[in-house]
TrEMBL record:
Residues 186-272 form the Strictosidine synthase conserved region domain. This is Strictosidine synthase conserved region domain-containing protein. It is found in: Vacuole. It comes from the Eukaryota. PANTHER family: STRICTOSIDINE SYNTHASE TRANSCRIPTION FACTOR WD40-LIKE FAMILY-RELATED, STRICTOSIDINE SYNTHASE-RELATED. The lineage of its organism: Eukaryota, Viridiplantae, Streptophyta, Embryophyta, Tracheophyta. GO terms for cellular component: vacuole. Belongs to the strictosidine synthase family.
Amino acid sequence: MPHVTLPQGFSLVFFLLAVYCALDPFEHSPIAGFPDFEVHKVDMPAWSEVPKDRDKENLLQKSQVLFVNQVQGPESIAFDPLGRGPYTGVADGRILFWNGQSWTDFAYTSPNRSEEICNPKASASPLSYVKTEHICGRPLGLRFDKKSGDLYIADAYFGLMKVGPQGGLATSLVTEAEGVPLGFTNDVDIDTVGNLYFTDSSTNYQRRNFIQLVFSGEGSGRVLKHDPSTKETTVLLRDVQFPNGISLSKDGSFFVFSEGMTGRLRKYWLKGDKAGTSEILAILPGFPDNVRVNGNGDFWVAIHSRRYMYGHLTALYPKMRKFILKLPISTRIQYMILIGGRLRAIVVKYSPEGKLLQILEDSEGKVVKAVSEVEEKDGKLWMGSVLMPFMAVYKLA
C-alpha cells in the first residue's frame, strides 16, 4: 500500500471537500431545487448613508407579549371602524377577530380550503404551514374601509380580496395586471374614495419561496392601483426589488411603500405638481416589512433585520453571492448569517418629510424577537410578526 504523506492527505481531503461543495449531493444548498435561479445586483445605498441610530435602552423589551400560541404568524393587525379588534391573518389561512375575550374565525381567503389540510394544529409553528399556503391561502396586509366596514385583504396567493363586515369567504378583486398574474400580493391600503393601492412583491417567486426571492435580488415587483368602480387595475411602478408594505399619507396626497431588498422608503405622489412621480423618502437602518401611518401623519415601519456588511457586500456582488449560495449550507444558516446571527425586533418612525423621529428595539431578541407590522392605537403600538406565534404591545410614553 503506497505511503500517503500528511500534505498529500490534506490535499485529498481538500479535493474531496471541494467536490462535495460543488456537487452538493444531499441538496443542502438554498438554491438546490431551483435550476433556473439567477442572482441580480441590488441597488443598495452607500454604506455611509445608512442610519446608525440605535435604541440603547432596548425599550421594546418592555413590551407585553400577548396571545402566545393562539395566533401563528400574525403578519398584519387591523381594527374595524368601531375600534373593535384586533383582526389578524394567520399562517393557516384564516383571518381571526379578537372579541375581547377570545379569538374567533372571521374570514378566510381560499375557496379550496380543506379542513384536513388547513385546520390549525396544536404543535404547529408559523412555518409549519408554508407547504400548504397555496391551498389554504396566506392573508398578509389587512385594511378596513372606514365607511363601509369592508375588510380588504392582500393574500399572497389569491391576490387582492374583500370581505364584508360579517366575514366569511372573501371575494376576489384582482388576480392579474396587464395580463401578468399576481405572484406575491403583499400589502394594501385604501383612499377616501375607495381606490386601492397594493404591492405585488414578485411575479417570479411565491411567498413560500420568499427566501429565494431575497437571495436572488430579482426586481419583478410591482406597485398597483385598483379602481373598484371601473374594475381597472393600473401598474404604477414596475421592476421594483421586493416592494412590501404600503401606506397612504394622512392627507392622501401620496403613499409610501417599503423596498424590502434595498432597505428604503419610497414616496409616490398622487396629487400636486409631482403627481405620478416617485422619490426616495428615507434610507432605513435595515430591511423593512409593513409601514403604517399614525394619527399625526407619521409612518411606523417594521424592520425585519438591521443591515450588516456581509449582506451589503453580497448584494452588491451577485457572483460572490451565488458562489456562497451554491455551498451545501442550509437555508436557515445562510439566512441567519445574512441577518446577523439572530432575530431582532426594530421599529422606526418617520415624518412625512422622511426625518427619523423615533427608534425602538429589542436588539437581543429577548421579548419581541421579530416585527412585521406596527399599528399605533390609543397610545400603544401593536406589533405582529409573520415568524412569531404571538403579538406584542408597547405602551408609548
